[in-house]
Every structure is written in structure tokens, then in C-alpha cells.
Amino acid sequence: MGDWRVEQVAQEQLLPSWADGPTRDAIVEFVDSVSSGPDEVPEAQRIAVFDNDGTLWTEKPMPTQLHFIVQQWRAAAEADPSLADRQPYKAAVTGDLAWLGDAIDKHYAGDDGDVQVIIEAIVGLTDGVSVEQYASSVAEFYRTAKHLTLQRAYQKAIYRPMVELMRYLEANGFTCYIVSGGERDFMRPMSEDYYGIPPERVIGSALGLTYHEDDAEVRYAPTLEFLDDGPEKPVRIWSRIGRRPILAAGNSDGDLPMLDFARRGAVGLALLIHHDDDGERGDTPYDGGARRALAEASDRGLTVVSVKRDWSTVFAVG
């Protein structure tokens, strides 16, 4: 594609947005060791997995897919005003999205009551819709929507250091996958253009699917097949890839099983992104949803990546 997201550059130019220091050194030393050093791993086994929201692009003030869904809920409530008095449509109509944020925080605290309400409303939006129709509507969202606080296209809200890391790994024989709690088919329309990751290497939460013989279409069913978060992540990695990753990157408590899965193999590196910047470069500082991961990082052998100290550049465009 000829731009920084996917082009291959000389080895000495890789990781230019990573600050010199122990974190960058740990990454380089690990990659050197498993690609040509004492812990060399066959190229086919050099698997790296990356969470998406909060790891590859910003997830504040809300995850990107939630922005898309809120637009759909608002349109549904306009078509059927009776929906406007109940959640989550009420939050979408009034613009008071605190309820949605609280639901996500409750999920990370182990309470999925409100998340189930959200899931039911999500599957209602896609029931009976063909996979191609959905992909088209998602692609249109990416063409027109802007990040709510950065006021730029979502393509410019991705973390440049992390995409550089994927290119660096690929240059050393790794195959990279996205493994996210976000919905798989919402990520696929942009993953190759934004990250250089083809859709077949995107693993995420999945809505139910059915095949309709009358029109030869695959359509969505009103069910959530699985939520790809927490312990489900290693399960989905194994079912899709059939290998234990040797490098994983995430940013939340829900990523801990995936990070452990990579770290506790024969050889492995697990990166935990810590959003500790002051916000002046556009990345919102927060620990919510990652308190356990941060508290246990040392005991679990995680390498904490500080946005403030370890990234000299945050976004694709300043």
C-alpha cells in the first residue's frame, strides 16, 4: 500500500516510535533470541497475538464499535420511539453514555448484568442481515466517522508504535494475529488497511451465523456465539491457530489469560500496555479495567509498556 502501516523498512529503522530504554531492549532481545539466538523458534511457531481496543488503537472515550452501535441504536429508537425509554437505547438517544461506560466497568469487575442487556440489543441490530450487508455498513462507518475527542478519522487513532512492532516482528519471521473482545466482523473491514493484518487473521467475539439456501446468503442469527474475552481468548487462539503464541500484547484484565498463555510457554514475551500518559499527546490516561493486571504484572512476568515513557510518538498523525 506504500505507506508506513504496511511497508517493509530496513532493520535499523524499525521501532522508530519506541523510546530507547529497558522496554524496547526487552523486545529486541527477545526477538533476536527466538529468531536467530539461543532460544531460536522455528518460523512457523513464531506466533504473535494482539488485543485491539486499547492496544492497537485508542478505546477512549468509548470503544470504536460502541460508537458505531450507538449510532445504530439511535436510528432504531427514532424508528420506534417506544425503545427510547429503556437502556441501552435511552443512553444513545439522550447522549448520556455514562451508563454504557459503567456497564463495561462492571464487566471487568465480574458483573455482566448490564453487558447482557447491551448484547441483546446488539444482536437485535444484525438479526437477519447478510454478512456482506453488515460489512458494507461497517466500511461506510469507517469512511465517515471521526473519533469523538481527537476529531480525526479512526485510521488516525491507531497507535503507531504497535503497528511498527507488528512490522518488526514480521520482518523476523513472525505471523501476527488480532485477538480481541471486539466483534470479529466489525474489525475485518479495516484490519488490513489499518494494521496490515488480513481478515483471516482476525479473532474476536462472534455473532451467530446461519446459511440461507433460498438466496445463498450467510446471515446473522439473534445470538452471540461467544464473547472473546478473559479465558475465552486462549481457547479461541488454539481453535483458530492451533499453536501457542510466543508473544502477546494486551492492556486489560481481560487480556491476562492470553498474556499468561504466551508467557508460560517454553519461551514467551507478554506486553501489557499501560495508559499512563498525561493526555497532552491525545491518549487518555486510565487504569480502569487493568488494575489487577498492573498489580500482578511483576509476579506474572509481564513487561509493562508505559505510553508515557516508552512511546516517543503515540498516533499515526499528530
Q: What is the gyration radius calculated from CA atoms?
A: 20 Å
Low-confidence stretches: 1-12
| Helical stretch tally | 12
How many E-type strands? 7
The biggest beta sheet is recorded as: 7 strands, mixed
Principal-axis shape equals: globular
Task: Tell me the strand percentage band.
Answer: 15-25%
Share of residues in helices:
40-55%
In the sheet with the most strands, the strands line up as 4-3-2-1-5-6-7
Report the average pLDDT across residues. 92
End-to-end distance:
21 Å
Order of helices and strands: HEHHHHHHEHEEHEHEHEH
Class derived from helix and strand content:
alpha/beta
List keywords for this structure.
alpha/beta; globular; disordered N terminus
Task: Outline the structure in words.
This protein is an alpha/beta fold and 318 residues long. It contains twelve helices and seven strands. Strands 4-3-2-1-5-6-7 form a seven-stranded mixed sheet, with helices on both faces. Helix 8 links the parallel strand 2 and strand 3. Helix 6 crosses helix 8. The radius of gyration is 20 Å and the shape is globular. It starts with 21 loop residues before the first helix and ends in an 8-residue tail after the last helix. 39% of the residues are buried. The N terminus is likely disordered.
What's the arrangement of secondary structure elements?
Blueprint: H1 22-36, E1 47-50, H2 64-79, H3 89-94, H4 98-108, H5 113-126, H6 131-144, H7 160-171, E2 175-183, H8 184-195, E3 202-212, E4 217-226, H9 232-241, E5 247-250, H10 256-263, E6 269-274, H11 291-300, E7 303-306, H12 307-310
Parallel strand pairs: 1-2, 1-5, 2-3, 5-6, 6-7
Antiparallel strand pairs: 3-4
